[in-house]
Amino acid sequence: MTRPRWALAALLALSLVAGCSAPAAAPQAPGGTGAAAQDCVPGAASAPDDTVAFGHATNVTITGGDGYRVLTVRTPFPGGQPQLVVLVGCGQGDPALPAALAGAPVVHTPVSGIFAGSTTQLPMITELGGLDRITGVGGAALVTDPAVRGRVESGAAVDFAPNSTIDAEAVVAAAPPVVLSAGTDDPAFPALAAAGIPVVGWADYLETGPLGQAEWIKVVGALTGQDARAAEVFDGIAGRYTDLAGRVRGLPPTPIVAGQPYQGTWNVPAAESTAGILFRDAGATWLGAGMPGTGTQAQSLERVLADDGDARIWLADGPFATTADVATLDPRLSSLAAARPGGQLWTRDRATTADGGNALYERGALHQDEILADLVAILHPQALPGHAFTYYRQVPAG
Prior knowledge:
Layout: H1 5-8, H2 35-38, E1 60-64, E2 69-73, E3 83-89, E4 106-109, E5 114-116, H3 122-126, E6 134-137, H4 146-154, E7 158-159, H5 168-174, E8 179-180, H6 189-194, E9 199-200, H7 210-214, H8 217-224, H9 227-248, E10 254-255, E11 257-258, E12 261-262, E13 265-269, H10 274-281, E14 284-285, E15 296-299, H11 301-308, E16 313-315, H12 326-329, E17 344-347, H13 363-366, H14 368-379, E18 393-394
Parallel strand pairs: 3-4, 5-6, 5-8, 6-7, 8-9, 10-14, 11-16, 16-17
Antiparallel strand pairs: 1-2, 2-3, 12-13, 13-15, 17-18
Helix pairs in contact: 8-9, 9-14
């Protein structure tokens, strides 16, 4: 059930995935014995019970102080109800919980294994040294990390959602310590809850802003006993991101065309959407820069042509082999200055695999600084000379 968040944002840039109901709460496991005690890393240090500081993410909190932590996902998917998960230390008995936490799933940390439903979670796990804890992936065909693919090929990790739907029987048989959702509801959740398998509703993609999404690595840190390392990794990403944005602050903004039409509608990223913030921080101006909101706003192709048609840089989704291919999408697109001689057409498919995986939707979910670096190099090349592109590819003229 791999959910490439940026792919869902492919109508540029926005990630909204539909669902029906929040992941069902699993019954609490017996205190400190049996399966629950075996699901965490033996001999692990006592799990912290302090609150985790989030400076950018607003859809998740981790609070503590009573000998356990409470992981709260405010919106596990659009329209979903808040989900609470109790985190307790390895080998500890399940704590006496207040009525507000009755029925909340209990996860013993640090977990010995993770079933990751989305590719966005994989770099957050591996960069905390948790490659060997990835015991399941959802939709292995879209995974781009060779090390993670190797675990699947060796049998060390199973593909538990090869057709974008969780195989409940396979998950129950494997009995993982925790399942990270792919940001949607799934008909398998009630069965997993009945089997006592905790599900964390993973919704990084509902954050507003790239650093808010990247900060979800702290959730993985809490699950794997790597709080300090998670904060360190995130601080490094945030620092590099801030430095890059500072390089172009004050420079004249570069006009761009953002996205492309789909089924007759051009969904333009608004100013406070994640894509909009990335474009703004990279020093761009476009039709949506003056539009309030955190999502996209549907526009006609005529409106985009009128407002952004003279922009000489087009950040599209593709796929395009050459600039001549834009006419197959809509002949009117050939009138864009960016699609004519002297213009630049860029797509986000440099790091793709033969199976259709794209590292933008995997490594890029964490390394928003790398995405921003590509954008800065496109829009203000003088600010980042000699840049080696990671995710964006310039489409050759044709």
